[in-house]
Inverse folding.
């Protein structure tokens, strides 16, 4: 059975969620969405390609910022409805300049929110000032 | 601003995806969906609670199998539309008896699929024979 026979792309949107994890640190970097074409392109090129739901656009991670992701492994879950991609990340995965998009945690003590990692790049250095 | 003001539950389903990661190993165990009530219950009890889309039912992870997850950290991403929960996992996260639901990977050489970890529990030992 081929890979694509074992994956469930959403019947309406044609998308499947992908968790992106930095292989050497184990840090979860981001979650993004793939359609079949972006998964095929990811496998063919070894660089992550996604589908932007907000922009309705196919894109390669890092195409503007240079912060590309080299694919090291592609796994999928028991239900075939989520993908886990291990990568080597150049620069910051997050458009806000953090290594990971998950840079905020719930504060266990008071239920507030805390920043848990340092910003490594100023966003305006990457994308230019808005 | 409260946690809930920073999260985007889907406008139609009321759900937000949650990545579950084993804190001590960094292994991504599963992805599941939460509504606001299940997130509140997760925070209040320190055990993961989800919303089952297939069964349309609120459930505590491990309520049948005993394979519960103790919450160590709850983070969320820059867009506020994905949650990352660090846990301590009792037993197997996957209902197929694997530690992680992501036990299959794409074989880089031939594009086929390979099993990447050992089954640690026979599913029928957990849920009874079907």
């Amino acid at each position: 059975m081929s890979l694509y026979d074992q994956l469930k792309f959403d019947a309406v949107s044609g998308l499947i969620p992908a968790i992106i994890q930095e292989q050497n640190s184990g840090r979860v970097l981001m979650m993004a969405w793939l359609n079949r074409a972006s998964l095929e392109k990811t496998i063919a090129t070894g660089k992550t390609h996604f589908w932007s739901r907000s922009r309705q656009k196919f894109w390669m991670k890092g195409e503007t910022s240079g912060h590309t992701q080299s694919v090291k492994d592609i796994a999928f879950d028991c239900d075939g409805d989520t993908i886990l991609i291990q990568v080597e990340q150049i620069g910051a995965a997050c458009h806000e300049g953090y290594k990971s998009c998950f840079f905020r945690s719930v504060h266990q003590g008071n239920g507030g929110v805390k920043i848990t990692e340092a910003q490594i790049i100023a966003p305006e250095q990457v994308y230019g000032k808005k």
